[in-house]
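anyone seen this seq b4? input:
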Amino acid sequence: MDTAGVKAFLKRKHVTPTLKTYFIDAMGAMAFGLFASLLMGTIFATLGEKTGIQIFNTISEYAKNATGAALGVSIAYALHAPQLVLLSAATAGIAGNALGGPVGAFAASIVAVELGKIVSKETRVDILVTPGVTIISGVLTAQFAGPGVSAFMTAFGSLVKTATEMQPFFMGILVSALIGIALTLPISSAAICIMLSLDGLAGGAATAGCCAQMIGFAVLSFRENGVSGLLAQGLGTSMLQMGNIVKNPRVWLPPTLASMVTGPIATMVFHMENIPAGSGMGTCGLVGPIGVYTAMGGSSGMWAGILLVCFVLPAALTWAFGEIFRKTGWIKDGDLKLEL
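predicted toks r here
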């Protein structure tokens, strides 16, 4: 088969090996898998711990145990996998998560799904071949690649955390700004933080950056989008503004500048910490503040830190920066309008 034939075959199979496919579409879907399993499990675990109600702990255990399967299915769905491939991807996700954590599940699921799509409906025994190829390739990828990739991500995450503890001011600015930007981009900041095991002070700085983007854009665009926009961005995602950012990148400056202020406040003033599952979520479903509560256990100053770093300061700072940019003409009325 010549090159043109191979391209035509892959196109027919919906196999498009591009950075967008894997690091935007697949990783973005991965966040939903994490939310539906690990993140919800973490929330229920916190409820069980603080209320003493055992059923919450039971639900938490089942939800967390479903993480690998949820990751495999969510990635398969994003890659437009046919039914047999999508269902078989659960096994690949389980193996990847068991052997390499979320990053292992990510790698194993992508390989399994793409190979499964290639063989899907190509033989008379599709019911055996398709799930067989999907499962075998996923498990083998998990075994060979999962531990190594996971170890690298963990080591890099440890480097970031150590640097944040040693230089809380500068790293507070850097981590807050970068993770906040990642949250607004069409990639998954939650997946990145979980892959890096980003907790402790670095997790707190990441939380500050994510909250600055979500609450910041919600307040900054209130005159254009009203209450519905406030809720959609403040409790949903600032990713809704990506279309407007492309049209006028300057609208991104106010929340990003706010994150560069709240980051070091989180690390140096409130010593805010978070768990990996909450570090990259911001105020989405209030998962970020819940993660701070889980990590810090109601310690002194925690509630003031959550209130100021996650809500009050992002709103006030972004609004102030926004007013400056509106007066200079960098941001005009309508630049932040959403179609809700």
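Residues 167-328 form one domain. The two ends are 47 Å apart (CA to CA). kinda curious what u guys think
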